[in-house]
Amino acid sequence: MAAATDQGWAPLADDLYTGATGAFEHGQVDMAEAWYYVAAWSDLLGRSQAVVGRQWLESVEKAHLLNPNVPRDLSASLPDEPLAKLLSADITAWLLGERVFSASFFNQLSPYDYLPGVLANLKLLREADPRRFASYAQLAMAIALVYDSPPPPRWPHGQVTAKALPRTLPRPLDAFNFFVDSDLHGATLQKLGTLSVSDLKFMVDLAAPFPELLWAQKSVRCTLAQLPQSYSMVRYRTDRLEAQTYLWPGDSYDLPRIFSEGGICVDQAYFATQAGKARGVPTLLFSGEGQDGRHAWFGYLGSNQQWVFDAGRYAEQRFVTGVAYDPQTWAELSDHDLKFLSEGFRKLPPYQQSRQQELFAAHFLQIGRKKEAAASARKAVGYERRNVDAWDTLIAASSDADIKAREALLREAAMALQLYPDLNARFVRALVASLRSRGETSAADFEERSIARKNKSDRSDFGVDQAVKTISRVIGNNTPILEQLHVYRQVLEQYGQGSGMAFYDQVVRPFVGELVKQGRSAEAKGAVMQARTVLKPEPDSQMDLEMKMLLKNLH
């Protein structure tokens, strides 16, 4: 810290990275990792607040994560001063000296975290009570990362008005004290001091205010194993489903009112997730599309810190995938993120060893030492095949290799991640692009079709994705009507069977809407009838009712 005062943090970071890299190359991996985090903090603290703010804005805009609740001037007034200015000497020294905290922090940090907000939250929580902060450091980190920017308007779901549910997070210190007090007084079902930031971030994203959470602590009296019962505590309102009243009809969305009045599945899921958070349990609200309708359910961190993702889910409906928010970034959680959470391998020693190698592989790549980067990345995937960052680094470090050798790497990565369809598809698509670039069209077509073929039995959404891409090529671009209808019949026959509500929402309705725009009501009705024949909705199901309403509106 004295050196940083004299020289600045950025030059110090360069020296520290050099020292850490030297230790790594001499086989002192554990020591190298410890000093790597000191270097990483120095690097971070030396960055300009103004530059970091602009980079954050560019990142969230590029990823389409800049939601309307974020003030447009959030980063515009940041000074051209180092981030270190946001912290006191006391907390800076604590951060530099806490290896476990640092490892979690840099492992969790993403380009979509607003660093000035994160550091301000950490400073606030530590200065309020250093002892509490140290005892619940992972909880403090979760709050710092989640509360750095406002949530989007449709969080935690979009079937309630902003008036009934304001969508505002509490003040960071109030949330921290609520959870710590609850834990100390025995009101939590999980021991919060033992949980990691990767789990705790799904607990601190509170939509319900504290009075309602306190009500839930007293009223939702169940064990951790019984938590799924909180879903069915809310009486299901079949009258709302029959009337297709999917938006909450009241002007207040408080937990006691939901409990007393009942609701549809999304209200049940909201109630269960907020009640779970009130009891110190990380929870997720899922929404998905099944065979004959849309549905919402919830997931929670259960016994032995194992995630359960099917509380309130209807297995017979084959909900192929569920959408949930990552409260750290407000992006949708990917399929592999959820599976990685459930597997918990990132908490095990092989992943920690893999992570050590990946840290230095990425650093080698950044300073242009591709050979060393490739060697470390290869060791990383050897320790843990599910380390996606290591695969990305290995492929990037092989950019100068023969194109066929790079394609072999892409195939290897796809094979290593074949149990994670979205990741497998990402590497296969990169392989397809490479094959096309050198004129191997047939091989590229075969690999592209394999994505839908491999996942057709249990992941019909991949077929729906392919159907959407195919149908989008012919609608809205003056394609002759006969060709439009021909392509629609093809995708219906090839991808429609077993695809259910997702196919109806993403293919049938948009195509019918385009035909209506063209003034072709007869063809639109025919498209709906063809879809009914292939999709075969159950009588009086959500899809059946919506198809009947769509046909009625076409007359």
Keywords, please?
two-stranded antiparallel ribbon; about 550 residues; Serine Threonine Protein Phosphatase 5, Tetratricopeptide repeat; globular; four-stranded antiparallel beta sheet; about 5% strand; single chain; mainly alpha
What does this structure look like?
The chain has 555 residues and is mainly α. The protein has three domains: 47-345, no CATH class; 371-455; 460-554, Serine Threonine Protein Phosphatase 5, Tetratricopeptide repeat (Alpha Horseshoe), CATH 1.25.40. Helix content is 60%, strand content 5%. The protein has 28 helices and six strands. It has helices spanning 2-7, 9-25, 29-45, 49-62, 89-97, 99-108, 115-128, 130-135, 137-146, 172-184, 197-200, 210-219, 229-232, 238-242, 255-261, 265-278, 335-343, 349-366, 370-383, 388-397, 403-416, 421-437, 441-455, 460-472, 481-496, 500-517, 521-535, 542-554, and strands spanning 283-289, 294-301, 307-311, 322-323, 325-326, 331-332. A hairpin with a 4-residue loop joins β5 (325-326) and β6. The chain is globular, with a radius of gyration of 26 Å. It starts with a helix and ends with a helix. The model has no long low-confidence stretch (mean pLDDT 90).
Mean pLDDT: 90
Straight-line distance between termini: 75 Å
- Biggest β-sheet: strands ordered side by side in the sheet: 3-2-1-4
**Proportion of residues in β-strands:** under 5%
Shape: globular
Low-confidence stretches: none
Biggest sheet record: 4 strands, antiparallel
Structural class: mainly alpha
**Overall helicity:** 55-70%
Supply Rg: 26 Å
**What's the structural domain tally?**
3
Count of helical stretches: 28
Number of beta strands: 6
